[in-house]
Amino acid sequence: MGLRFYLILMTLVAVVSDYLMHPFYPIFFAERFGITDARITGIYFSAVCATVMFAFPVWAIVSRYVYELKILVFTQTIAGILALSCSFINSWPLFWVVSLLVIVFKGSYLLVYPFILRITPTAAHIRIISILSVIIHLGSVMGAVFGGMIIDWMQPAYIYFGMAAGDFFQAGISLYLLLSSRMEKPAAVVPEKTSRHWMELIPGGMVLKLSMITLLFYYGDFIIRPFFVKYWEMTAGSDSRILSGAVYAIPALVAIAGLWMNQRRKAPESPWHGILPALFLAVSGAMLQSYPSTASIIAGRCLYGWAFFQSAVRFDALLFHITDPASYAIEYSKIHFFQNLGVLAASLSAGVLVEYFPLNVPFMMATAGYLLVITMYYQLARIRLRPVNPI
């Protein structure tokens, strides 16, 4: 088993540990701290997103000088220790501080994504990105289901034990890869000898345009996430957290089918193609989910899962298509900053929306957001589009 296998395994474990709590924060806050205000949940989500936004670019810069695996040994060990401490904290302000510190160090695992693509031939990028996207979706499935099982069968505090175990696993694998004499290690990225002004780290040109589009793209996706479990339980009349987690994770299951299909058909001529049809499907999926019916929600989750997977894979492939391999981590951190800005805005506005409007309103906002993404992307890519294989 080569280096890439272990890196992909680390990605899966990282996503699972991330999603253990993700759908259940409103429930956890109510049971642990007595907090039921949806706006506070939205603000916390926004704080998490903001922390990742500013922490990951720092780790990306550090990775220009320090080997990624060395960084991960250090950061994931600290994240695991802090996550363990969260399971014992009963003070809401202290929980904020410590849990956000967990995110600061845990967020370094995002370096694995550009690292994998740096050691992968360009011709195989779409295939590897598809696999990684499915791994991320599969991890969200497992995390949501396991998190629901923990909340249903044990105490919510045990979720942080699971998160810590994932962090320690990543640190252990990173240390093993560093010490293994049989493992081929890629050459480190050597920074330019000429000094770089910090302003050069700000995205410009095509990367900036793509960043703005994906900001809205991820806004549309994440505005429906924080309160989806409550929306489903209200519509279905069920309080099973395991069932709620499974329905929440339907798009991840559909993504696995999307990977299987993508492996068995001709790839598009370039990453520019296939995005618009997928975005139109995402609009349809979001509209279906806005109708308060269990059948409509499940059908919408399936359609939306397919569309989001295809769009996200091609957006990522497009980014690495227009950037230099030596700068993958830096360039990915730039677009990731804007994506998380969209997530932050979505988390904050979702809390406000559900406080004053019905729980299906976030899906209407997502629909409007995707329509704007379609318009912006068409303006950017229209000269590069020609008829090719449909998605």
UniProtKB/TrEMBL annotation:
<dbReference type="Pfam" id="PF07690">
    <property type="entry name" value="MFS_1"/>
</dbReference>
<feature type="transmembrane region" description="Helical">
    <location>
        <begin position="157"/>
        <end position="179"/>
    </location>
</feature>
<dbReference type="InterPro" id="IPR036259">
    <property type="entry name" value="MFS_trans_sf"/>
</dbReference>
<keyword id="KW-0472">Membrane</keyword>
<dbReference type="InterPro" id="IPR011701">
    <property type="entry name" value="MFS"/>
</dbReference>
<keyword id="KW-0812">Transmembrane</keyword>
<feature type="transmembrane region" description="Helical">
    <location>
        <begin position="42"/>
        <end position="62"/>
    </location>
</feature>
<feature type="transmembrane region" description="Helical">
    <location>
        <begin position="128"/>
        <end position="151"/>
    </location>
</feature>
<keyword id="KW-1133">Transmembrane helix</keyword>
<feature type="transmembrane region" description="Helical">
    <location>
        <begin position="272"/>
        <end position="291"/>
    </location>
</feature>
<feature type="transmembrane region" description="Helical">
    <location>
        <begin position="96"/>
        <end position="116"/>
    </location>
</feature>
<feature type="transmembrane region" description="Helical">
    <location>
        <begin position="69"/>
        <end position="90"/>
    </location>
</feature>
<feature type="transmembrane region" description="Helical">
    <location>
        <begin position="363"/>
        <end position="381"/>
    </location>
</feature>
<protein>
    <submittedName>
        <fullName>MFS transporter</fullName>
    </submittedName>
</protein>
<feature type="transmembrane region" description="Helical">
    <location>
        <begin position="240"/>
        <end position="260"/>
    </location>
</feature>
<feature type="transmembrane region" description="Helical">
    <location>
        <begin position="200"/>
        <end position="220"/>
    </location>
</feature>
<feature type="transmembrane region" description="Helical">
    <location>
        <begin position="5"/>
        <end position="22"/>
    </location>
</feature>
<dbReference type="GO" id="GO:0022857">
    <property type="term" value="F:transmembrane transporter activity"/>
</dbReference>
